[in-house]
Amino acid sequence: MATMEELKALIEDTVFPDIEEVIDELFETIAEQKEATMLQKEELQEMQELKAEFQKVLEDIENNELDAEECTEIYEDIMDMIENVDED
Prior knowledge:
This protein is mainly alpha-helical. Helices cover 85% and strands 0% of the residues.
């Protein structure tokens, strides 16, 4: 079972840097093209929303609003996402 601290570390050390890297790459691509395609705009919005969702999870952790079961479920979901990205 994942603890709150393990979940927090996973989000701060892995998830946020990965999301920020994707956002930075999108901004660089858009800057090079001097215009964003609809797909790029959608992807950028999705990444920003995903980051906000994970920020909310961190706030819930800080406020002790998640129980052990929720932490484990979220942790496992994140690990599944990471594994699926690595397989692509």
